[in-house]
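Q: Predict the assembly, please.
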Amino acid sequence: MIQVTDLQKTYNGISVLNISNLSVSKGESFGLVGNNGAGKTTFFRLILDLIEPTTGEVLIENQPVVRNDEWKSITGSFLDEGFLIDFMTTEEYFSFVGKLYHKSEGDMTLFLESMKDFFNEEILGSKKLIRDFSKGNQKKIGIAAALIGDPKILILDEPFTALDPSSQIRLKRFLTDLQTRLNMTMLISSHDLNHVTEVCKRIVVLEKGKIVKDLNTNADTLKELESYFAV
Amino acid sequence: MLVVDLIKQEWRKSFRSQGFYKNLAVSIMLGFFTLYIAAILLVIGFSLTKVLEKADNVLTPLELFEGAMLYMMLFGLALRFVMQQLNTFDLPPYQVLPIKRSTLINFLLLKPLFSPANYFLLLTIIPFAIKGVATYYSGSVALRFVLSFILMVWFNSLTAAYLKRKFGSNLLSIVVLFAILTGVAALEYFKIFSLFSFSKMLYSFFIFRAFGLWFPLGLVIAAFFLNKWFFHQNYYPEKFNSKIRGNKTSTTELSFLKRFGVIGELISMEIKLILRHKRPKSTLMVSGFFVFYGLMFYTNDVYAKSNGMLFFVAMFMTGILMLMFGQWLISWDSRHFDSLMTRNIPIKTYMLANYYLMIAFNIICFAVTTPYFYFGMKIVYLHLSAFLFNVGVNIYLLMYLSTYNNKRIDLSKSSAMNYQGTTYKSFLIVFPIMFLPMLIVWTLSTFFSLAVALWTLSIIGLTGILLRKPLINACVNQFNRRKYKLAEGFRESA
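A: Predicted assembly structure:
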C-alpha cells in the first residue's frame, strides 16, 4: 500500500528524517510514536506530498506521490487546522468535501448519521463557522472530513490530544471498527502510548528522524514503550 | 504610568514581529512612498496661501480655510470610518493581569492619537499657518489655528472609533455616511444652508476669541467620554465582538454554481472566503471606489490626448477585481492550503477554478464600467481592447506570478494600509502587467494611430484566449514547481 525507500529530509544540512526502507501493507494499522521533533509530522507531510523529500521517495499503490494527484482520491488525512476550511460552517464544509469525492446528498446524510455518536450532538445544526469551534471539536470535524470519500488510507496526527475523555474512547472504538469492517489502512501518530497501542497493531518508534523500534503490538508492547521513553 | 508601558509593549510588538525585518525591501519602498507624499504635502502647504489669495478677493486665505474646516472634518470622519483600523490590541491577555479596567480602556482610546499618520497633514498646515496666517494676523493666531486643527484630528479619531465600534463598518453605514456628505454638499450648492459660512463663523470664534479653543477641547473630551461610556457598557470582548462572532452567517448557497462540478464548488468556496473575511471584503470595497477612477480621467482634457494614460485607466478599471485579487490568487488560500493539497482536487482543477473566477471578475468589471461608454466610441474601443488584453494576457501572468507570493495572509485584518503578504515580488508582478501595455499603446499610437495600438493589443489578447490550454498548463506546471515553497511559506504564521 505505502512503500518508502531511502526517504531523507534535511534542512540546512541537518537531517530531520531518514528512513531507508519501510512498507505499510493493506489493512495495517500503523502507529507512530516519538518525542517532539522526532520527525513524525515531517514523515506524514512527506507522504502527503506537502514537503519535497531531499532524497528518496514515497509510493502509494506503486505510484510516487510527488506531484501526482492520483493518491488524493484514496487518502484521507488530518494533521492540523490547516486541513480545515475554517470560514465555512460544518455542513458547508462536509458537503464541499463530499462533492470533491462525488458523493450524493443521500451518501452524505448516511455518513453524517454514522458520525452522530462521535459528534455527540455538538457539531451539526449550529450555523457556526468552523473557526468558532473549540480545538477539540475542530479536531472531530477534521477527522470526520478525512473519512468522507471512503479512503483506503487514513492519516491522523495526534488524533487524541484536545479531545475529551469520552470522545477519546469513542474515537478508539470508531477506528478499531473501521479497521475490522473496511480493512482500512491507518497511520496514526500519538504521544499517548496507551491509546496508540490499543488502536494500532504495529508500532514504530522514531527518534531524531530514524526508526529505532518496529514492533508488532502484543501484551508487552506498552511496557516496552514505557521503559523506552522513561527518563 | 501604566499606559506608557502598554504603548511601549505595542511598539515592541510591531518591531519584533517577524515580518518587520524580513520585508525590508517593502519597508524601504513604503518609506520612499511616504517621503513622496510628505514632499507633496509640504509643497501644497507652501503654495496654498498663493492659491487661496487668487481664489477669492474678499476673504483672506485663513477665512477660506476656516470655511473648509467642517468639510474637512466631515470628510476626514468618513475617510476614517472606512480606513481607520480599530485598535485591535488583544484585551484578553491583559484582562487577566492586575491592571485596572479604566487603564486598559484609556490605553485603547488614546493609543490611536499617538499614531504619526494623524499628524501627517500638519506638513501642510504648519507652512500655511506661517505664510498665510502669521503674515496676515499674528504669530499667536497662527498657533491657535494649528492647535484648533490638532483638536479636530483628535475629535475625528475618537468619534470615528466610536462610530465604528457602535455601528460596525458594514456597507449600510458607509452608504448612510456618504448620503449625509452628499446631502450637506447639496444644501450648500442649492444655497439652502451654507456649511461654509457656518464653519467660517465657528472657527473664527475658536481662533480669535480668548477662550475659543476651550470649545473644541470640550468636544474632544466629550468624544473621549462617549467612547469610555461605550466601553463601560461593553467591556467584555464577547460583547463588542458580537457583530464579528455572531452566528448569523448567511449560508445562502450559490446554487447555480453547483452545475459546474468541482470547479463550481471551488469557486463558491472562494466567494464565501471573500464575503466572510474582513480583508478581502475591504479589498472588494476599495475596488468599488476605483471604478470611479474614469470620472477623473475621461472628463479631463489633459489626459484625453494621452492615449497611453487612457488605456492604463481603461485596463485598470476593467480589470480592477482581477488585479486586486489576482496578486494573491493563491495566498488567499494560505490558511487552508494543506487542505486543498491533500483533498481529491487535481492541481489542474484548482487552477482552472482560479482562472474562471478571474474571468468572472473581468466580466463583472467590464459590465460595471459600461456607463463610461457615454463618453464616446473611443472609450468603447479602449474598454473592449483592455478587456481582451486582461482576459488574454494578464490573467495568465497573474496566475503564473502569484505562485511567487508565498507569504501567509491573515484574512481577518482590514486591507487598508495592510501590507501583510506584500513583498517586493508583489511590485514586480504589477509592473509588467500595468506598464508594458501602456507603453505599447503609447508607442504605437504615437507612431501610427490609436486604432493600430488597440488592434494590436486586442489581437494579442485574442491569441491568448485561443491558446488557453497550453497557457493554463504552463501555469499548472509552474504551480507544481512552486508547490512546496508555497506550502512551507503558508505554514509560517507571519
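The first strand of chain A starts at residue 2 and ends at 11. The helical segments of chain A are 40-47, 90-100, 105-119, 135-147, 165-182, 193-199, 221-229.
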